[in-house]
Specification:
alpha/beta, 15 strands
Length: 301
């Protein structure tokens, strides 16, 4: 049996392990949270190196993108270097392909009229494929990078503005401890409403779920959430807050949609190749064989 393990800086309360079949291959896919403990994160990589077929990096990014340029979080790169035998992915391959295609599919199939929707994308440089695809639909998008990642009360309203800010800030930001920018560990278990007016104005709230969840208001009546990595508990929470539709970009297993890093690990394992050898077309071809489609759930009518 193939084994793909996501080692996450997030809360261990979100852990999950399932067995699944992909193209006739049996897989164990699992998510192991380390509650923001960097030493434990690295220890888990060392312990399982060579014993699993692929590692996903969860609760963090190694790479973020803007204007066609890749920026590397040095802290995460150093931690990931502990794995010397097993390939390591952070989900970037699927953020560039699956999430881009998901937006195009939703517009093409008339599931959401994004061209006439107001969208809050909580962080564009983290979901660059989604950001570029949303921009291409003509949607009215607020890019929340400065608000959700840095805490600066400035809404960016075009990809040009995102790219301009990225060129100035990202070379500095990737030198910072990742925990300063993203909810890890226990922070993933708390919700403190903030930036409420931007949630209120949006028809669609999109992007990384821990970012969405961290600041979401009590009332999300009628909203569509476009994300991934949701647990059964998350779905109940969104239902309680009035969310109309939940769309997850990755497949669901036993009530859980796993992160792009996990599913990218599955694709790398199926390919039998190194992550750096795979092109966007390779990912798209594999996903076509798997017939992956976004999962659409109506939570409130």
């Amino acid at each position: 049996m193939k084994r793909v393990t996501s080692i996450s800086l997030g809360s261990s309360l979100r852990n999950k392990s399932v067995e699944a079949d992909f193209l006739g291959e049996k897989f164990q896919i699992e998510r192991v949270g380390t509650d923001g403990d960097l030493k434990l994160f690295q220890k888990k990589l060392i312990e399982l190196d060579g014993k699993v077929d692929a590692f996903g990096l969860g609760g963090t990014d190694m790479y973020i993108y803007a204007a066609g340029k890749r920026y590397t979080f040095r802290q995460i790169e150093r931690l990931a270097a502990a794995a010397v035998k097993t390939p390591v992915v952070d989900g970037s391959g699927l953020k560039n392909t699956l999430e881009r295609e998901t937006v195009q599919y939703l517009q093409r199939e008339g599931i959401i009229d994004l061209a006439h929707s107001k969208v809050l994308l909580v962080c564009a440089v983290d979901r660059f494929g989604m950001a570029e695809a949303l921009d291409a639909t003509g949607a009215s998008v607020v890019y929340g990078d400065l608000m959700f990642a840095v805490g600066v009360p400035i809404a960016l309203r075009s990809m040009t503005a995102v790219n301009q800010a990225a060129r100035v800030l990202l070379p500095l930001i990737v030198q910072l401890p990742f925990q300063w920018l993203y909810p890890t560990g226990e922070k993933q278990n708390t919700i403190t409403p903030k930036w409420t007016s931007f949630y209120d104005e949006a028809d669609v709230i999109a992007g990384d779920f821990p970012y969405i969840r961290r600041y979401m208001p009590e009332n999300l009546a009628g909203k569509t959430i476009l994300t991934n990595t949701t647990t059964a508990e998350d779905v109940l929470e969104l239902t309680k807050r009035g969310v109309k539709t939940l769309i997850t970009t990755t497949p669901q297993f036993e009530g859980r949609s796993f992160g792009t890093n996990v599913m990218e690990g599955v694709l790398v394992t199926l390919s039998g190749r190194k992550p750096e050898e795979l092109t966007p077309k390779d990912y798209m071809d594999l996903m076509a064989k798997l017939n992956w489609k976004p999962r659409i759930q109506t939570l409130n009518s």
